[in-house]
Amino acid sequence: MKKYSEELGIEVHAYCLMNNHVHILIGNANKGMSLFVQKLANSYVFYFNRKYDRCGHLFQGRFKSEVILDDAQFKTVYRYILQNCEKAKLGKVDQYRWNSFWVIRKCSMKGFVDSEYARNLFGSRQALLDFVLQPENAKCMEYENKIVLSDDRAISLIKKIFRISSPYKLERLSMDDQVVKCGIMKKRGLSINQISRITGISRRIIRQS
Predict the structure, then answer these.
(1) Percent share of the chain, pLDDT over 70
(2) pLDDT, average across residues 134-158
(3) What is the predicted pLDDT for the residue at 147?
(4) For residues 89 and 204, what is the distance between their CA atoms, to the nearest angstrom?
């Protein structure tokens, strides 16, 4: 992360390595985000395959991303990422070796992880620490080991559930109806990105469901 974030001018605000995936909060991504993840993943796959004498793919599917719309959402996602290890019972936020909490704990606040933006949002290092350590049940792109529907299967499911000829008909409904329908689709296993992609409904509305 240090190598490729510096190489591509990507700001890493927070990260948490889990047992089979990683959460990263990045800024200044623009068109460099995909390249950043590609370089990061390829480098790790090369290392992993060489170490364990294997070959082929290691990760399942493409990475998932979500745009941070404002400072309030940034705060929520920031804390969620750092607390992810504790929710998964891998370790305490302030003791887990594989997250970026160390950046907040260090007084210098220096390193490849940029904590200045987060600290400025709270006005002080202590306020940021208090916020991160406060228990929170927010869910941000929750990772689950579940079967992911292909777009074709998801489209067929939507047509069947709502008895419509095209998923895009849902976009023409009132906002309240869209929220209800999105809630039903999420319960059937469709992700926020997938619902938005095949129906045209905005992610903001989907998150409300």
Answers:
(1) 92
(2) 74
(3) 53
(4) 30
Kindly state the average pLDDT of the residues 92-105. 90
Query: Tens digits of per-residue pLDDT, 55-81?
Result: 888 887 778 888 888 888 899 999 999
- Cβ pair 80, 138 in contact under 8 A: yes
Is pTM, for the whole model, over 0.70?
A: no
Distance CA 54, CA 14 (A): 31
CB 194 within 8 A of CB 66: no
Go through the chain and tell me how many residues it has.
209
Tell me the β-bridge partners of 11. Answer: 27
10 and 26 Cβ atoms separated by less than 8 Å? yes
Long-range contacts of 135-143 (CB under 8 A, 24+ apart): 135/83, 136/76, 136/79, 136/80, 136/83, 138/76, 138/79, 138/80, 139/80, 140/66, 140/76, 140/77, 140/80, 140/81, 141/23, 141/64, 141/66, 141/192, 143/18, 143/21
Determine contact, residues 206/141, Cβ cutoff 8 Å: no
CA distance 141 to 192: 8
Q: Please, what are the domains in the chain?
A: 2-133 (3.30.70.1290), 151-208 (1.10.10)
Closest-CA residue to 83 (of 132, 19, 14): 132
